[in-house]
């Protein structure tokens, strides 16, 4: 990691201040250095800390390694179609950190960012005040874990964790474990516990799923050939609505496979619908299990059908495919579960995060706290976002697409800087 002292400005002013030192902020720094633009990256914890401190032990990528394409630092390993495990991801990121050698101020929290009347941004942090001509917000959109208020009514002996704090089955007390939510984290954590022989009660949400492999290849490879990952948000059928979608559940574990909740149920996992309430010693669930499983399978089959169409249209030789047929169906919708007799000793909340940009004093946010922007460029002069899901494409919040977004943002920053320099020169003349 580079020493910020080497890059310190006596007056505390920078051309660009980047908030956040994850893969998005470091990608922006890479392109700013390429463009010769002075800047500072401010990180509340340590760079790329989320990958190190908020992932469980058995975590691995759900996208193949070849999609790791951080700027100037593509995946160089010998398993492009494999899925890096947690320690391999950290190793890849360590190489990227050294490659970028960004000017970073770590363990520094940004308290407030506000544009002054003269157009310059004033930035207040836990380690002093700075100013900058332009600001890039690269802190992601997953800040505050969502835990429902009903959690407050749980008996004290039930251990509660949010998905980012889960590490392994051994760290939980003996007994059944309830996992709430079936996005990528919930589905994979439920699998991790199930494979370890733990009794799992799973509250199934509305997340879709997809196949890992279909017709002889990874589904990601097919979708890449179909140019799905190049589709900009404005061309997506849902437009900006796609940003609210839950990610499809699938896993890269043990070389990659489907996550089939029906199969888990047939093996003894207890599936319920959405968790709605807790009162008088009973959990209450919505009668949505059957419809949620069916909806996830519909998405699974729809993606595969689009691959069938692509294969047929282009006359590609590939093994035959077939639609997924449910291996298990719920006999009934169970809507209650007794807290004590269920033997539940721990609950893992896997229902996502809400953004927290309360430190950014700028009129760019909608009612749910998300910024208005076009490909990361906000209506406010000199203010940008990068690293958000579907900022521009599917890969915007991932290793695969953040480089393209960062390069685009830095191009806009360079143009704005040149425009200001010309204006200043004209005034001086």
Automatic annotation (TrEMBL):
- Broadest EC class? oxidoreductase
Provide an example Pfam family for this protein: Pyr_redox_3
User: What's the Enzyme Commission number for this chain?
Assistant: 1.-.-.-
UniProt xrefs under InterPro entries = Auxin_biosynth/cation_transpt, CHP04046_FMN-dependent, FAD/NAD-bd_sf
Q: Which residues form the signal peptide?
A: none
Molecular function via GO: oxidoreductase activity
Query: Where do transmembrane segments lie in this chain?
Result: none
**Record's SUPFAM superfamilies?**
FAD/NAD(P)-binding domain
Question: What keywords tag this UniProt record?
Answer: Oxidoreductase
What is this protein's record name? Oxidoreductase CzcO
Q: Which organism is it from?
A: Paraburkholderia metrosideri
């Amino acid at each position: 990691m580079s020493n910020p002292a080497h890059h310190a400005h006596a007056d505390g002013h920078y051309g660009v201040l980047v908030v956040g030192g994850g893969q998005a902020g470091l990608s922006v720094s890479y392109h700013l250095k390429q463009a010769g633009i002075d800047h500072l990256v401010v990180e509340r914890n340590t760079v790329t800390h989320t990958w190190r401190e908020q992932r469980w032990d058995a975590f691995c990528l759900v996208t193949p390694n070849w999609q790791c394409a951080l700027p100037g630092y593509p995946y160089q390993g010998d398993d492009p179609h494999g899925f890096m495990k947690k320690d391999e991801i950290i190793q890849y990121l360590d190489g990227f950190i050294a490659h970028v050698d960004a000017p970073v101020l770590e363990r520094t929290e940004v308290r407030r960012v506000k544009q002054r009347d003269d157009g310059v941004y004033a930035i207040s942090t836990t380690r002093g005040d700075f100013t900058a001509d332009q600001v890039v917000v690269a802190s992601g959109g997953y800040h505050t874990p969502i835990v429902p208020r009903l959690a407050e009514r749980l008996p004290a002996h039930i251990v509660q964790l949010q998905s980012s704090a889960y590490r392994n089955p051994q760290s939980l007390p003996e007994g059944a474990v309830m996992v709430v939510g079936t996005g990528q984290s919930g589905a994979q954590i439920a699998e991790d516990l199930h494979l370890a022989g733990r009794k799992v009660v799973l509250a199934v949400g509305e997340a879709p799923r997809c196949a890992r492999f279909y017709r002889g290849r990874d589904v990601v490879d097919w979708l890449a050939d179909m140019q799905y990952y190049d589709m900009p948000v404005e061309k997506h059928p849902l437009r900006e609505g796609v940003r609210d979608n839950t990610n499809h559940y699938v896993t890269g574990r043990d070389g990659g496979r489907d996550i089939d909740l029906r199969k888990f149920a047939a093996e003894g996992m207890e599936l319920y619908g959405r968790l709605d309430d807790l009162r008088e010693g009973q959990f209450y669930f919505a009668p949505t299990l059957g419809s949620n499983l069916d909806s996830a399978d519909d998405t699974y089959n729809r993606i595969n059908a689009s691959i069938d169409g692509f294969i047929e249209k282009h006359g590609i030789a590939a093994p035959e495919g077939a639609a997924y047929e449910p291996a298990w169906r719920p006999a009934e919708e169970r809507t209650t579960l007794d807290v004590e007799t269920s033997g539940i000793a721990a609950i893992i909340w896997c229902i996502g995060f809400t953004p927290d940009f309360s430190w950014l004093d700028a009129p760019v946010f909608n009612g749910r706290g998300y910024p208005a922007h076009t490909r990361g460029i906000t209506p406010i002069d000199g203010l940008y976002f990068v690293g958000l899901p579907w900022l521009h494409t599917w890969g915007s919040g991932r290793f695969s697409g953040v480089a393209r977004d960062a390069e685009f943002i830095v191009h806009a920053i360079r143009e704005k800087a040149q425009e200001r320099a010309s204006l200043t020169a004209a005034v001086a003349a």
